[in-house]
Amino acid sequence: MKALRDELVKAHATQSTYTPTERNIQELEEDLQAMDSITQCGLSQARIANDILSLSKIQLGALSILPTTFELQNEVKIILRVFKNELASKNIDIGVSYDRSLEDLGISTVKADRSRFTQIITNLMSNAIRFTEMSTGKREIQVTLSVAPTPPTDDTCTPPSEFQRLQTSDDSPLVYLYMSIKDSGPGLQQEDLALLFQRFQQGSNAHHVFGGSGLGLFVCRQLCGKG
Fold this sequence. Notes:
Elements: H1 2-13, H2 22-60, E1 68-71, H3 72-81, H4 84-89, E2 93-98, H5 101-105, E3 109-112, H6 114-132, E4 140-148, E5 176-183, H7 207-210, H8 216-224
Parallel strand pairs: 2-4
Antiparallel strand pairs: 1-3, 4-5
């Protein structure tokens, strides 16, 4: 980076046209990759610290929920934008779709805790990227957002396939957000399901393979259960 800067200064001083060499370009690309790695490491540490702080508040019963009104689809785009460089560097394709339930229910804005909403999606995306990175086939992540006026009827958290349009005079009817993040990673064993949402637990005890703190999904579940 310093060598490239010196060349640019020299070219400017002589008022000549500067054409970077292959070596200059390679050095610049290496510097950009290093900066991106530093950024990703910082974001990862911030996620872990945020989860630990949330866990402490949950255990003390001091976790507060502060609802604000925000545009739902736009917020999802902002959250996912953070992962753009990481996805590109790991050759992972991402698709985002919004279920027709948003249109059917006329939902464009919601009132919820924006920071907790961000924390949940960030944890799920981080988890999906970690496992998809290990895939030897096509690497892809599919994000789907849907809404419904009723909560899930079982432990799968699957949105209801059919529901009636909201029939209420309330200006702020209660709706449930369903966020699905599906990845092309190696998948789960049946016995892993019982471990996933427990604190400091991971499927097949695979910390040495996939990394992670084993805390993110537990925090997500706790946050989803807060009223």
